[in-house]
Design goal:
- The chain folds into 2 domains: 137 residues, Aspartate Aminotransferase, domain 1 (Alpha-Beta Complex); 244 residues, Aspartate Aminotransferase, domain 2, CATH 3.40.640.
- With 396 residues, the chain is of the alpha/beta class.
- The structure holds pyridoxal-5'-phosphate.
- Pfam families: Aminotran_5.
Length: 396
Amino acid sequence: MSRRAGRHFLQIPGPSAVPDRVLRAISAQTIDHRGPDFAEVGRTALEGMKGIFKTSQHVFIYPASGTGAWEAALANTLSEGDRVLMYETGHFATLWMKMARRLGLEPEFIEGDWRGGADPDAIAERLRQDKAHEIKAVCVVHNETSTGSVSPVADVRRAIDDAGHPALLMVDTISGLASIDFRFDEWGVDVAVSGSQKGLMLPPGLSFNAVSERAMEVSKAGGMRRSYWDWQDMSGPNGTGYFPYTPGTNLLYGLNEAIAMLHEEGLDRVFARHQRHAAATRAAVRAWGLEVLCARQGQESGVLTAVMMPEGHSADAFRATTLEHFDISLGNGLSKVADKVFRIGHLGDFNDAMLMGTLGGVELGLRKAGVPHQKDGVRAAMDVLDEMPSPAIAAE
Ligand SMILES: *Cc1c(COP(=O)(O)O)cnc(C)c1O
């Protein structure tokens, strides 16, 4: 195959492009994870992730994809037969529900239309009916990566409290963390799940649990049979910066670099940058005459935008054309929306010019694939970028 000039645009909503600084950090020689030099690496990563989750409670790091940390969240706190209330925001919420079922839990799945976040009122209503407190946990996806919708996590906490219900609140923020606002302690989350390859700008391979004191207590006496995922096994060695088994040493170098970069930019500016790029992308979609999948105003994701394909046109054929001609990878539609939507990732290490390149490539792809559209998307996005101050410039 002949070489393709220029950088590939990896515009799927995770893995996101890895910054050169992070790649360089990862390329350092692997060290003895039980030797004296490792403690600093481990401690910096564990403490650093507390800052990213905005918690003063517990954080655990697994050499696993996000799915592993999903399992860790459930296995440490819940026992076979326990009821859990989950909300169908999209494909990832559905996968987490299926995992709960396979682990022997009894998930109740509140149906959703895949066009918005979890509905706190529906959760409160179900919890109020549960007078015997059989539901042990409420699980929601913060940023539903299959649809581009955000759940109001703080409102879900309020719904649980207003119903006077003791259920734990578990949140999948695998794609939300470090891209959009997330506040573990302030929002009263009990267990949060995240992964390395989305907002954290790392390659895949690390995942995280943030854990409240309350969930930690629950796990000491309860949970299901587990070994690899056990928080207690982790917390001993973690106290001095070590792990019970071989950690992802080089990914931890990268993680410490990524955390430093996020603070150099400022988390609030990182979040504002994502919101601004999302607003510009939505403007482009509307100007093309296409529809954004998220239909709930205020719940549109800063991480990605899922775009509905016009009737009779294949989203996957369009994505293949865009990849072939313009070297841009766009996200596919998953399960219920397979071939019906494509997803534009605008997360991670990303700037205005990269967004223009991405949207320019999408618009060219629409032309090339013969998808009916108006040719005004890129210009509409430019207008938004021009009107909304750049958080990076405003800070100077
Ligand atoms: C990516 C993602 C997952 C799956 O994570 P893996 O690292 O692929 O195991 C789960 N939930 C959400 C919301 C995601 O974005």
